[in-house]
Design brief:
Chain lengths: ~350, ~350, ~350, ~350
């Protein structure tokens, strides 16, 4: 297998390199960047010294098509919208890590992203790559829209309850917390160490572009889901997302039943680990790995269910899931090259 | 004014020292500890070198009564239950920073704290010291139960909405986040740097002892409030609490109305700062100060109100509020000795 | 006393505000900025809400002279060089927090700062404001060059040994470590949280502009001091500097003698605290305060003396020392308004 | 290959698990612990859920010998002293990660560790496993004393200069900085998050047990090396060591010559990466990997050479190097199973 990465200079691209470098079925991968043709990745990422020595290449779709079978586009929002159809036209398979092909309705995209949406045909064709809950066989897919980091954590946590209609769809609240790599590579006042260290920030209140993404998927599972509440916090840590989710139970439930539901739902999914009853996951327990760890609680006093899920935002929340999808597109074991033990502590 | 601190070796006690050292109306204060009579505070707290040189004293209630007018008990839960009545018997005024005199119903205390409750007479007499919403004049109070850190942040944030009956009392969800000083001075696996750094933990799910404290106060304001959902997260930072709170609006509201309500509610309260519309506070913006900063948002899509409040857990969440209450008990300006500018960055 | 701050939008300026806000002898201070005339400080520093409400003013030297007695210039290097003489011409006293008036030799400045040096007359007139070792009475000074953060920590630590000729001047090595506020307010890749958190960087190897500053002062104390080794590390913390310093003893010494020398040297200096023998300071023990804590060790195996000093880089390393100098210039107690207890933890 | 880990509940043991889990030539490994026979590793290390499910086993040397070929002893100092000879007696090969078999002179051990030294025969037989500078073929070794974390970073940095006699042996100063995992798994006041976060501590001044270890190796390379200065600092980060080292040049040198020497010395060593001239490594650039990155500088002003080296203390500083040594003992490529790309950011 030969693959290409477009956008190697962002954190998603660099994490793809970390994974593919050790992937047994990828014989070659090349790195491309719009802005830094000819420069060395090691200038911005000296940790890659002796690992990646070839210079970054320009984004030449024909050349990429002649050398690779599949492309990861780890580009900022707005770039993939135009680039992806060009790559597909060359016969390449594409896994897009940006948000450009996730929202089926181009109006939603334009409203929440405030940019021009991607090609309507490909918006319709794109498979939303929440690997554990795929609705089509990826072997037939040409374009995978890789899910956002928050939606991955939220949807894996909510899926069993929504699919079993165990919660009141109008009561869903998702309180999400992320490490700072979620804000990307570019320095800004928000991510300046002096002001982010020992600090906790809430941002994009009621405006985060992952709101419509989560709603779209939940509604596809249960049409009664409409608007949800989703809030996002920036924490003084590098990696990791925790979503703490609340919803009212619609019928009498108990913790054993809920716990069994989750164990059963994910029994064949290597990367989703359900914690023992009463034990809740911390973000560091999945650091550097592709796991999503989930716990569930039920409070009889309020008849409210709480679900807690954690992921590494750069792995299961981005590049790890992208490679998991690649494995499926290419007919391989979904775990191949992804069995990283979490780096702890 | 002469005051004594019992429990000077904990973080609450040490923060009291930081404040009282600079308080213009406190001429003397003494430090007492059950376990370390005769030792020096500077052994555990070398930052106090040249500031506190006298050794720690034993807890001799008669001696304290002969030297001080007022005592802060910054002792662990379970100690104050017995100690406070002895101090009161000697004629001392007491501000108790532990949780022992907050819950009016001793059964609640025993259930949530799993310890023996304090004296029934004093449980009844104790004034709950949420300074901005006091229901009696502290000048007449002998015992103030100083609020918990989380309840302070949550109650200051919810008060205007609850008192104006603007939210559905059955939909209140409080997602709380704290820095690690909230877990106290004693080292434990949970607070071990190697495992807490770059990590986010959720703990005491549906079991936190601040749940009944918040419910008790909210119910006293609006009898329709019953059980609430309150969850607690431990973040890799030293100080700071943020509570992100959600509730459904009961009637048509808009953001201007809500914002004005908050500005109006706290217009005479120096330590509560309402942010401009659309601006949300970060915990570091109150670091080392007695401020509680609050923002409010309204989402028309879900008809849900969100309130965000931040405090320094050791200041407004403990020792700062305790001194604010002391000022009121002694008939002074509530801001005296407390006008610390936040330490930023 | 009326004072003005030029450069209020940087960290040095904001720390001056924190101090002056609580200073008993400063009745008024105004905030000035070259770039943000008319805007509000609270836009970049919301922690100042309700504390500083007036907008930033332009830098109009005549207007400042009509309103203030003394000015702090907390401006970037290169700005003060030209601005300071203009302020002095108006009869203002100036305390310059930049590096522009510290190096007596303009060629040194141009070599190490790579900028045009300040006015020769004022370079000569400026008093280097290392408060504990001043060589002239500040009451007569018009211009104080406030020392750099690293030089303050290093010079306070080395002074007793150098002045007593106890170390071989050719063996001085200063290994310095700083928190990230030392790099200022502007975001950059170096201070981006995602790459600075959980990381340790060494920077400006053999090129730091504080090298000639330290050498100039040491040489003025002991002409045998020439070039020293001084290295600088950036640590994942907000505030704090530690300098670990090494030098060979020139004669037989022992730890008691060294410890007594330090106790004696600083016995009248409130802000310098000598630790007990065998106890070494941590940076957090001076956090938010104007203290410099120092320890000394002697290793018989190598005949080498080690000195460890810590400061808060924004306090004793910048704005705290500046106010200490202001107090002296105005004939007040040097501790006035500066007796902050360290914020711990 | 079948291997056993004794001491799986410490950080060294857990890091061995992370490596061996992905090692292509290790078919089985078992986990042993003195204190927790029968309990699950996942109780203390939930990140291992679904990865390690079998319970911890007691330390039964005969049983281990019947099941494994090689044992890692990742036990605290003082335990290996007695345990290692018992394992060797059973015919097992042993890689000891404790300090018990590093110091050849038992008196040195007893002085610096304040414990009883190991068996004299095995002290003599043990091969010091600084992999890049091994003096015997590990294929013949029965016992490898795996180097300490600090000595690994220091010795790899100093070796080329010492071996080429380019520095004055009496001027060596090593200023070392470590992340908190270096202090191990047990919580203590020193490593309590509230007091370690945003803090920098210096510890064990002139008393660190790695001093004689570094001196022993340096002296074996160049008998003129005697006592060195080595100081240790604890930083608010999880992993990573940087050693900043200083020594006077003995003859005229220049930076090109020094840089070439280092490039040449390590040209066949995959895990040692020499940075380009003028570029210095940060600890995060080796996070989670087995690399040691090194830079060198020369200051003509002082005739002093500076070397900077960084490692991940749990990888190249402990378990990574241990597996590197295992590979060599078993006649495999030294890089096998160790080609982890650093986790960045």
């Amino acid at each position: 297998m030969k693959v290409a990465i477009i956008g190697s200079t962002g954190y998603g691209g660099v994490e793809l390199i970390r994974i593919l470098q050790q992937h047994p079925a990828v014989s070659l991968y090349t790195n491309h960047s719009s802005s830094q043709d000819g420069s060395l990745l090691t200038e911005g990422y000296p940790h890659l010294q002796s690992i990646i020595d070839q210079p970054l290449q320009a984004i030449d779709t024909k050349k990429i098509a002649s050398e690779a079978d599949l492309v990861f586009t780890a580009t900022p929002s707005g770039i993939s919208a135009k680039l992806v159809p060009e790559l597909l036209k060359e016969g390449l398979k594409v896994i897009d890590l940006s948000g450009d092909y996730r929202l089926k309705n181009s109006k939603d995209y334009e409203q929440w992203y405030n940019k021009e949406a991607g090609d309507e045909h490909w918006l319709h064709e794109a498979v939303y790559g929440l690997t554990e809950w795929l609705e089509t066989d990826l072997k037939d897919a040409k374009l995978v829209a890789n899910p956002g980091c928050y939606p991955t954590a939220a949807l894996l946590g909510l899926a069993p309850l929504i699919k079993d209609r165990l919660i009141d769809e109008k009561t869903i609240i998702i309180d999400a917390k992320t490490g700072v790599t979620g804000a990307g590579k570019n320095p800004s006042p928000m991510t300046h160490f002096s002001e982010m260290n020992d600090n906790l920030k809430i941002y994009k209140v009621n405006k985060h572009q992952h709101i419509p993404e989560i709603e779209q998927v939940l509604t596809s599972w249960d049409a009664a889901v409409g608007a949800i509440t989703f809030s996002t916090h920036l924490l003084p840590m590098t990696r990791g997302i925790m979503t703490t989710m609340y919803a009212n139970a619609t019928e009498e439930v108990n913790i054993d039943q809920l716990h069994n539901l989750y164990k059963e739902s994910y029994k064949d999914d290597y990367f989703v680990r359900i914690r023992e009853k009463g034990i809740f996951p911390s973000t560091k327990e999945v650091y550097g790995s592709n796991f999503c760890d989930i716990s569930i609680a039920y409070d009889e006093r309020t008849n409210r269910i709480m679900i807690v899920s954690v992921i590494d935002n750069l792995m299961k929340g981005a590049s790890g899931q992208a490679v998991q999808n690649m494995n499926k597109m290419l007919g391989m074991e979904e775990t191949m090259g992804l069995e990283f033990v979490p780096v702890f502590p």
